């Protein structure tokens, strides 16, 4: 019995170590192989963005008012009590021109188990939000800086163009519609080297 309890206590520690080590190597390997992997990343980001716009009318409304849109086409989240998220994304201007490439990471604690993959789009509504993203030398820790509203189905229904007051609107999607119970607090977004 004691061995089993000790094993159960070690699982979150091992998962956290694996998640953190994979997050670090993933972003650095992405940076070093950026030239070979970016066309594929860009295409995946464009496809995810088109799918969001096609299925979510409020995202289409925001697109017309946004200064830029940061799209992470494949964020992977996994954990058992301690979890992690990681994914690479592309920043687009209103005309679809690529402005940069970014990495998203997060570590979370609490009641959680399993793994999932989803997409995330962040509509930067003000030039100040875009400047903050680009001026944070060691990355943007979401929850510090520009105000971010996570759009779920309920929030999207009640939002109108006259109630737009936040700097950033985030959509988490791609698993099955807009995902409930998902947040962006604690995410760190860092620009990848060119």
From TrEMBL:
Keywords: Signal. The keyword Signal applies. Residues 1-16 form the signal peptide. This is Twin-arginine translocation pathway signal protein. The lineage of its organism: Bacteria, Pseudomonadati, Pseudomonadota, Betaproteobacteria, Burkholderiales.
């Amino acid at each position: 019995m004691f061995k089993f309890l000790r094993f159960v206590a070690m699982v979150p520690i091992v998962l956290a170590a694996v998640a953190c080590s994979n997050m670090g190597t993933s972003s650095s390997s992405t940076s070093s192989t950026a030239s070979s992997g970016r066309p594929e990343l860009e295409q995946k980001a464009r496809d995810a963005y088109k799918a969001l716009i096609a299925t979510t009318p409020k995202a289409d409304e925001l697109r017309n008012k946004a200064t830029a849109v940061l799209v992470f086409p494949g964020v992977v989240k996994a954990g058992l009590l301690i979890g992690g998220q990681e994914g690479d994304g592309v920043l687009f201007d209103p005309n679809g021109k690529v402005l940069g490439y970014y990495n998203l990471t997060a570590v979370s604690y609490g009641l959680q188990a399993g793994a999932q993959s989803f997409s995330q789009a962040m509509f930067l509504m003000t030039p100040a939000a875009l400047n903050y993203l680009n001026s944070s030398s060691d990355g943007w820790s979401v929850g510090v800086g520009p105000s971010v509203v996570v759009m779920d189905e309920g929030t999207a229904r009640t939002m109108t163009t006259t109630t737009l007051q936040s700097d950033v609107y985030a959509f988490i999607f791609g698993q099955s519609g807009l995902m409930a119970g998902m947040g962006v607090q604690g995410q760190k977004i860092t620009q990848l080297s060119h």
